[in-house]
Design a protein that fits this description.
By secondary structure, this protein is an alpha/beta fold. It has two domains: about 5-80, Chemotaxis receptor methyltransferase CheR, N-terminal domain (Chemotaxis Receptor Methyltransferase Cher, domain 1, Orthogonal Bundle); about 90-285, 3-Layer(aba) Sandwich (Rossmann fold). The chain is built from twelve helices and ten strands. It has helices at about 5, 15-30, 35-50, 55-65, 70-80, 90-110, 125-140, 160-165, 180-185, 200, 215-220, 235-250, and strands spanning about 115-120, 150-155, 170, 185-190, 195, 205-210, 225-230, 250-260, 275, 280-285. The longest helix has 21 residues, at about 90-110. Bound molecules: S-adenosylmethionine. S-adenosylmethionine (SAM) binds next to loops.
């Protein structure tokens, strides 16, 4: 046992919980309800021990001296985020995406344009955006090289972004509806993992972006599709509204937003037109 792990910061008091939760909310928009006290105690207790600090008060004092871009905040983002994701996670939605892709292909060709811009706004370890890249590769085939494809994945967790950049995945990432043929076509076994084909990996880029950062989001413009899935469940209503306003601004006219299967815009935004597909919804900016 290391000295750091032997130090046990006392349990998180309601006041310390409130202080930490306010700091986290202010920097990331992630809201921890009262019943998440033990989760914060557990995750940030580990970090407090790693730093050799003896109490949560000392930890709170420590982070209050840092600015929100500091490495310590990135440690917090790594510690508190839930990065659960896998390839081909929601087949019905992906089918609706393919349908819209074929519409946009025709529209672009009619306009004499070849550009398609897609953003995975909480891309975690990359499976969502790589799924989209695989779908594009299958959809366009050899013609893909004639298209100007922009695929951006962003997340607040550097740990998740690092995994995304490596593009090597264990079995857990393959529990969605990717077929064995797709897996064999796009991945090569390497030890206990599977490595994504380089040409598909090179279609995408990942970078850090905090969805609480309205100014940074404003730089993303004229997007055709935004996947903002399974992240807004961690935000309160005010933050959800703020993020949706930004996404609306980032989409081009006729662009689409996709949410997680258990998420909806009901009561949060009426700016989008809901389009129904078999088993899925897409939200259009008209
Ligand atoms: C459950 S994962 C969802 C991954 C993927 N979109 C999917 O549906 O499979 C949620 C992701 O949201 C990210 N996240 C949470 N708060 C964020 C914020 N304020 N800005 C950017 N990403 C955030 C987390 O780091 C995590 O990787």
């Amino acid at each position: 046992m290391t000295i750091a792990s032997a130090i046990k910061p006392s349990s998180l008091s309601p006041q310390q919980f409130q202080d930490l939760r306010d700091i986290i909310y202010e920097i990331s928009g992630i809201f921890f309800a009262e019943n998440k006290l033990y989760l914060l105690e557990n995750r940030l207790g580990r970090r407090t021990r790693e730093l050799g600090l003896e109490s949560f008060d000392a930890y709170i004092k420590h982070i209050k001296t840092q600015d929100s871009g500091s490495p310590e905040y990135h440690q917090i983002y790594n510690a508190i985020t839930i990065n659960e994701t896998f390839f081909f996670r929601f087949q019905a939605q992906l089918e609706s995406f393919k349908k819209l892709l074929s519409d946009i292909k025709k529209t672009r060709q009619a306009q004499g344009s070849n550009s398609i811009k897609i953003w995975s706004a909480a891309s975690s370890s990359g499976e969502e955006l790589y799924t989209i890249a695989i779908i594009l590769d299958e959809f366009f085939g050899p013609d893909l090289k004639n298209w100007d494809i922009y695929l951006l994945g962003t997340d607040i967790s550097h740990r998740a972004l690092q995994i995304a950049g490596n593009a090597m995945y264990g079995n857990n990432s393959f529990r969605g509806s990717m077929t064995p043929e797709q897996k064999a076509k796009y991945f090569a076994p390497e030890g206990n993992t599977f490595k994504l084909r380089d040409d598909v990996k090179q279609l995408v880029q990942f970078r850090y972006l905090n969805l609480n950062d309205t100014m940074e989001m404003r730089k993303l413009t004229s997007l055709d599709f935004v996947f903002c899935r399974n992240v807004m469940i961690y935000f309160d209503e005010e933050m959800k509204k703020r993020v949706l306003r930004s996404i609306y601004g980032s989409l081009g006219h006729g662009g689409y937003l996709f949410l997680g299967e258990a998420e909806s815009l009901h009561g949060i935004s009426s700016a989008f037109k809901v389009e129904h597909f078999s088993g899925a919804f897409a939200y259009k900016k008209e």
